[in-house]
Amino acid sequence: MGGVRTALYNYLIAKKNGGDFILRIEDTDSHRFVPGAEEYIIDSLRWCGIVPDEGLDADGRVAEVADEKNPHAPYRQSQRRGIYRKYAEQLVSGGYAYYAFDTAEELEKERAAAEGAGQTFIYNASTRGRLRNSLTLPADEVARLLEERTDWTVRFKMPLDEVVEMDDEIRGHIEVNTSTLDDKVLWKRADELPTYHLANIVDDHLMEVSDVIRGEEWLPSLPLHYLLYRAFGWERPKFAHLPLLLKPVGNGKLSKRDGDKMGFPVFPLQWTAPDGAVSRGYREDGYFPDAFVNLLAMLGWNPGTEQEIFSLEELVQAFSLEKVGKSGAKFNPDKAKWFNKEYLRMRSDEELAALFLPVLEAHGVSASEAYVREVVALIKERATFVADFWDIAWYLFVAPSEYVEKDAAKFWKAENVAMAREALEATASAHEMEEYIRAKEWPMGKVMNCIRLALTGSSNGLGIADIMRFIGREEALTRFRRAEERLLS
Description:
Layout: H1 2-16, H2 37-48, H3 81-93, E1 97-100, H4 104-116, H5 139-148, E2 153-156, E3 163-168, E4 172-177, E5 185-188, E6 193-194, H6 196-206, E7 211-215, H7 222-232, E8 238-242, E9 245-246, H8 256-262, E10 271-272, E11 278-279, H9 289-297, H10 312-318, E12 329-330, H11 333-346, H12 349-362, H13 369-379, H14 388-393, H15 405-411, H16 414-426, H17 430-440, H18 444-456, H19 464-471, H20 473-487
Helix pairs in contact: 1-10, 9-11, 12-13, 16-17, 16-18, 16-20, 18-20
């Protein structure tokens, strides 16, 4: 959900300002690579109607070859690996970065020693002068290590005791002292790939990105990114860091575990992990894509009015980062259902009937589209999802084969049955039947619930008049006689 919301906000800003929404696959971290994730991202965006202007080819796959629509291809960072090293070397030659030759074991010893002294090890201006890097080693030793070793990295040379002044479109002015920051790795010789920091700065520049809208978790990286733009002499884009999506109950970031515990999805589409674990999706749970997009838009953004229902086109016109809050947005699963209920009500009877027909077929029911459309028109105000239609009105399509035991015990009594049978047989409609019961001065509730039990299998459901209008008097009599056979011994 968080990823889709970030994409949505980027899309809205792009469209509102006449820009392009770019899809780029950031896959330089091989340890985080997940098979199928790329296709899943594309399918999710497509389902939501958030269509990238740039980044996909004519077949809907990530573009690999540059053309008029995709001038900056390829859009997978792993396929752009040849681009980044020269920029890393440029930083080194300019004095903004350096080569680091410390092994994993050596760094672990540094961390352990710092921890033993009650401190936290940070690779920065206070420690790099005693570590193995191109700032401390002779030039010939550096050249030899660069040639012989394949585990070295390029680290950013964080300035000493400098205040970095930044502006965020959501959080306003921010100041951070570089003494609190570490010398981040920018490029790794081992796989010849950049880290997120270098890859994104370079690609955002080359792809002419004007606005970077991302999650709050990247806010601590903003000082480094500001300094990287300064080091390269490039114009910075605008930055905006979105608030977290929070748990419905308690504190903390929304997680899949919260959804599993409380019974709601956190994925747009069903996701099957490489280990076979399946996570439910909003699409598979019956949500409309426009309802899902609408509820996501409202998680962190407030239009400043009472309006809550927005089409995608209306969101484009109304959205602005100035109205996105700084604090986390608590997710409310009941509100999510409310959105879907509202969007279901706005659908035409024809569209809902078309969606309901496959549900009926799955239950072995064949019905005309006209009949289904009439049923939908009657019951859609009661439903949240299309699948609810079956639960609400299945008995308008098939006769009950079972009867709720507690309802039968309460209403299916000999005297009630006799009155109900007479009323059904003596009248042609539900309205006449009610008049007949009143004229006889019989207990309306007992007689009608007895009839309802025979027609639906329980004492709950639609009104008798509506049920009989759909199934007809003869079917009603048939169901009543069947109930007599099964319930009266």
